[in-house]
Amino acid sequence: MDKLGTELAMRVKNLNFYYGERQALFDVNVEFKKHHVTAIIGHSGSGKSTLLRVLNRIYELYPEQSAKGEVNYKGENIISKHYHDVEKLRMKVGMVFQKPTPFPMSIYNNIAFALKNNERLSGQKMKERVKKALKQSALWDEVKDTLKKGGSELSGGQQQRLCMARTLAMEPDILLLDEPTSALDPVSTQQIEELILQLKEKYTIILVTHNLKQAERVADTVIFMKDGHIKEMNEKREFFDNPRSKSLKAYLAHI
Amino acid sequence: MSGQMDGNLNIEKHEYTVFEDNEHLKRVKKKKSVPPIKKITKKRVRKTVRKKRVLQDTLFTITCYAALSIALLVLLFILGTVVEKGLKGMSWTLFFENLPAIGMSGGGIKNAIIGSVLVSGIAIIIATPIGVLAATYLTEFPEKGVVQSVVRFLNDILLSVPSIIIGLFIFALVVKTTGTYSVVAGILALLMIAVPMIVRTSEDVMKSLPPNLREAAVSLGVKRHTITFAIIYRSARKGIITGAILALARIAGETAPLLFTMLSNQFASYSLFKPMANLPVVMYQYAMSPYENSQNLAWAAALVVTVAILGVNLIVRGVFNRKPKKIK
Lengths: 255, 328
Known about the structure:
The complex is a heterodimer of chains A (255) and B (328).
Chain A: E1 8-19, E2 22-33, E3 37-42, H1 48-55, E4 65-73, E5 76-77, H2 86-92, E6 93-96, H3 107-118, H4 123-136, H5 140-143, H6 156-168, E7 174-178, H7 186-199, E8 204-208, H8 212-218, E9 221-226, E10 229-235, H9 236-241, H10 246-254
Parallel strand pairs in A: 3-8, 3-9, 6-7, 7-8
Antiparallel strand pairs in A: 1-2, 1-4, 4-5, 9-10
Helix pairs in contact in A: 3-4, 3-6, 4-6, 6-7
Chain B: H1 2-20, H2 22-30, H3 37-89, H4 110-140, H5 145-160, H6 163-178, H7 183-207, H8 211-218, H9 224-252, H10 256-259, H11 279-288, H12 292-321
Helix pairs in contact in B: 3-12, 4-7, 4-9, 5-7, 6-7, 7-9, 8-9, 9-12, 11-12
């Protein structure tokens, strides 16, 4: 309890996860530090995304998926059945996905949509919040004159930054990024990475990535997962310079 | 390390085979005119393979065109007949006068058109929300797995029930108990045809939306019902409306269920609780009569129905294709 709230944003304890019968995570224990970028790397199917999807309970959408264990956020176990304010949790623990998913509405409404649902804001305040979010995600200059245009008319990189803005507008504590740049070109990727570095001043960021270089560039702490286990977790330099486990050495050597 | 060894082995093997083929090499070196055997065989193989592929390609293309032309010919033949015979029955009074008695000349099909528009229109207006909500239940509540499979199965059965059986069912249920054929009975019969169609098409459209869309909205802390209305319906709008229009086109031409429920009416009656004239049944009754006048009127009615359905389809396509949606 001690460090939670001051140094730690989230603590995962003995987490087991199941897709129906198949177990995907095995006794995962991990702590996420506040205002840190924690990158999770590993092979496809190693459970990286699964871990991320537990942290805001998004897995609940699928009845066959279940999690057991403890994910402590602000002193409460968010995956317990008694934790009821899931909507509020998801506002505070935002998530951006691999593929940009603009909603079928204007750029402005893409951001205002969730705000309208969760807070009562006056028209002026709403405009300010939308503008702030777009500025934070470095999209404002590109779309300030075309806010009425449909969100899907933007380019892929812009769409992804729109999704970021949408999440940032909720003023979350934690940002979960599930391979946010894997569908983007190098320029857009760089923009998103710069964004991540800026955002970590204010937010705790947990990033799943396939791109080792990306982890090296933006992360403070790196986690290596394999077959549903956390194999290694360390401060970035130590992680890449002195890998301890055999599996991580093999993984790094292959790339 | 192991990779290098593999490479060495390969080289040795390669050299070995070349030396084994010494006889051929010597022959080639002495007589320069003899082209290398390898090349010839490769060319030959390529040629035969190509021939085969070209043949397959041609055959398949011909088959496709043949199938297409059979389908198109049938369609053109039907349309041609309807237009040719329907034009004979056309007159200026067609849209402005009520039905004549069978066998009488003159008159029009005004009350039948109004009846058809009214009954199909009311049916589709009621059927669309029911169908969409049922589809919502099937797609947006994943925790209700077993109930959903049962509902889906029953809906599929309903979808394939012959329409005459639906007519008989409503006849027994409504017409018998109320003692009269009526517009309401007709609407109920058409509902039973339209609703399962709309459920099916809406479910398909809503299911085909990317799961990320729902996940992204959920992870913003938005409540499920808001997501359904603001995002799912909006994204699926095009498909849902297309499905409803297809259902409308289908019920606008249904005869059997109306024959047993709404029947028809010689007179311009616009009461919901009495029989009312409608195009399909008028076609049936007038075409069966021995009088040429009446038969021509039936053909004209057929032309009107065909053109109306075609028109609705074209308009829907036009409206929705104006704005091509970016799909990624």
